[in-house]
Amino acid sequence: MAPTLSSLGLVTILLGLTSAQRQIGPEENHPSLTTWRCTKAGSCTEVNNFVILDSLAHNVYQAANGGSCGSWGSAPNETACPTKEACAENCVQEGLDDYSRVGVTTEGAAMTMYQLRDGSLVSPRVYLLEPSKEKYEMMHLTGMEFTFDVDATRLPCGMNSALYLSEMYADGGRSELNPGGATHGTGYCDAQCYTTPFINGEGNLEGYGACCNEMDIWEANSRANHIAPHPCNQTGVYLCEGEDCAFEGVCDKNGCAWNPYRNNNPQEYGRGADFSVDTTRPFTVVTQFLANSAGELTEIHRLYVQDGHVIRSETVNNPDLPQVNYLNDEFCEATGSRKFIGLGGHKEMGESFDRGMVLAFSIWWDEGGGMRWLDGAPEAGPCDETEGFPANIVKTEPNPVVTFSNIKWGELGSTFKPECKNGPSSIHNQNCDNMEAATERHFFYHGATESASKSSARALEREKENCHWCQIRRFPNNKEAPMTIVNEEDDAVIPSTFRFLQESRLGHGVEAAEDSFRSGCECRDDEECQYRGCLCLQEQEDDSDDEGTARKKVYMYHMHGSKAGLLRSHFLKHSKRPIYECHEGCACTDNCPNRVVERGRRVPLQIFRTTQRGWGVRSLVDIKRGQFVDRYIGEILTPEEAQRRRKESSISQRKDVYLFALDKFTDPDSPDPRLKGPPLEIDGEFMSGPTRFINHSCEPNLRIFARVGDHADKHMHDIGLFALRDIPAGEELTFDYVDGVSDEDNDAKDKSKQSDMTPCLCGSKNCRGFLW
């Protein structure tokens, strides 16, 4: 959302008048600003750009009598501008040789902008010029990234420091009546379609609005921030009238907004060390515009860098919205951005990038609304209804100011690098994250436009096949329950040969049951799937109450209320019985309460590097007691192959960490030859899911349960992990690798045998000392 200029009557600042942007005196003294263009191969190249104040923020008046040539929001003065030619002759613009008089200063790569308080002045909006100063610097950012540093410390509630893109013409609409063009700051337009006395430097006699595509990269103060693409269904500067200028007109005035507060992540951004991004100190802002293989913009990502930490936007904390940490069309549609989607969404925004957009900077406050949409409307930010009004702003900060610096743009991954500094870290802050470097090609190339050659395309596909992040993003639950990987401890990375799986794979010699042996329940409604009559529960043992009375309900989950879907306490604490569930072969619906494990993981997990125990796993959200977390999956092996792998492993006991025997139903007297034993085993060492990285503890917070779907697959039953207690977000997840039973308990006390045993490093109070 771009600011309006409240007046065209700036006080006279210097000599050097221009008539309809025709130079009749000294040229404007454009402040210089160093920027950088970056590539992955060649790093960043320094460029000496300049900035220009918007033409309508200069002093524009009638040369003959000093009268006004018009006001923002209306056509030009009819007396001065009966025709465009007369307007060009009668109206002049004063040049400006000292931008500090309008609150703008530059020094090297930094530009500082002050909010002006004099009622006769408007606060500045400036644009980036090419080194030649003849044209605006045009941004083409599809498949690219844009980075800058910002100091927003002195921007309280109600202030807005804006850095955004507008599809203005590169020459500012230079013409016979506007020979100055971009050199004099003409040609402004945005998605709000404002009416101004001049459009492209010529008198706007008809009172048109000036519409164009707008990309708000940064609208922020120290309390809240906002990203929003605003597409239009027109290209370049479109002159609107009537309904075309209105809310349902040619442009999306609201845009699709990304605001941490609206995403229910209030601790992501704010003042102080309690926030992931501490706005009381400078930080780096990175905005990435990811494209698909067709070169179409599909996603907009926001990252920050502060004290050497790379801080990614937090995943949306709202179960009713897609669980993403970036803008895409699915998120926009889910948040009600109907106009945005109707105008073409991110694809349309990307097409405006392809044509080129102009970089604009401004600082402003809102006399009428107090900037509530940014930092104070319901769920938009922490500010109250009155903090953002100018009279109250100056009580908090007498001189609001922002500094933008170190502006860079280029290929994805080329404009920033984390600096390895010691500092506080959290589950959202990544300090010198080595996994970031190891997987950066995913973020910066996979999905972005690459070489069109067949060999390059094949190589990219092979690379994507081996990319951990590509594997993870293909998970069907990735948006609802994303998985991330961080390393803040050492140089270790997950081996490139490891594969993340969604389901277990059958190894050589392992066969699933034939379809003719499969069956499912025929329950008429989901309610029946709690009771003994359900075919899936025919082998479920009685869950007797404390008096020994058998219950009618035999399935193992709570069905209603806040505990719905949680494992019943009796099973969780005391039972080692298998869980029998309905499955895809049943007549009940996908919403059947007895399909908890089948529906898969619903908890966002993070694989992280521990200080002493290698990789570990934690949840990014609170987990309830009895809640299903995930399954242990991998390659399902014959017992012969499992034993062969044990022998080939350099440390056979270490191999046992990854092998799980599927022996819950093993019985030498079973009529089913597959259950007579020895059992199949799951090997998660080389391919698995996130649970493969969960560590052991003698006092675990998770417990394993055998789970059966189709009874014909008992020999390859699932291994599900459930929470033994409430687990707060960020706590490491653990389970007991031997489920509290160890044949080596006595051996562990025999020092002569300890050298052959695997030590336990869990560190719990009741640690047994050894695993096996």
Automatic annotation (TrEMBL):
Keyword annotations from UniProtKB, A to Z: Carbohydrate metabolism, Cellulose degradation, Chromosome, Glycoprotein, Glycosidase, Hydrolase, Methyltransferase, Polysaccharide degradation, S-adenosyl-L-methionine, Signal, Transferase
Pfam families the UniProt entry points to: Glyco_hydro_7 (PF00840), Pre-SET (PF05033), SET (PF00856)
SMART domains, per database record: PostSET, PreSET, SET
Signal peptide positions on this chain: 1-20
CDD domains: GH7_CBH_EG, SET_SUV39H_DIM5-like
EC numbers, comma separated: 3.2.1.-
Domain Post-SET positions: 756-772
Superkingdom of origin: Eukaryota
Stretches assigned to the SET domain: 603-738
Catalytic activity from the UniProt record: Endohydrolysis of (1->4)-beta-D-glucosidic linkages in cellulose, lichenin and cereal beta-D-glucans
Class of the enzyme per the UniProt entry, highest EC level: hydrolase
Name the UniProt record assigns to this protein: Glucanase
